[in-house]
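FAQ: What does the model actually see?

It sees only this:
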Amino acid sequence: MFSRFVRIVLHPFVKPVRYGALKLMKKMRAPDDTRPIISAAEYLLDEFILPSTFRTFQEVTFRELARFKKLPVAEHNCIFNELQVAGVCIATSHLRMAKSFTRPEDYHFWQGVEEYLPKQLQRTLMGYGVEGGNVKLMRQLIDMRRIEYEDLARGMRDASENGEGNPRTSPPELTYLASAVHAVAVGTVDHIRTR
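And it is asked to produce this:
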């Protein structure tokens, strides 16, 4: 009873304290200390990627468009996995852009977070009780989709740069990010709709 009361009272302070602790860990870390990278990857998954994935999965309009009622539960699980992979791919695209928006000494930190994020998803899934073989398949799916979405994004960038009447006014970083997000969105919809 007391622990539940403490959790309710302290809940509004948990996120700011966790964020502050991450900032402090990042600032004071030794060059070979990977704990801040692991913590940042865990934070991104817990606070942004997984909640967003779950909200999308639960959304009524999404379920109607994906024809959930006509699909077996096993296909629901596959769709949920595709959404998780899409979340990781979008996050890694954003993290790849860190070089353009952070101080040079911080870039290697964010590059480490980008590289560790899929592994952190593996750890999170194992913490949820997902079997090791399935977790390994999820990691393989992430690697496969990242390559697929990067190729699609490259094609989208090339098409937009070579399009007639389309003067290049956006910075290259923004063009990269926009094409990466569009590629993940288009690819994910394609994988979900072909089920």
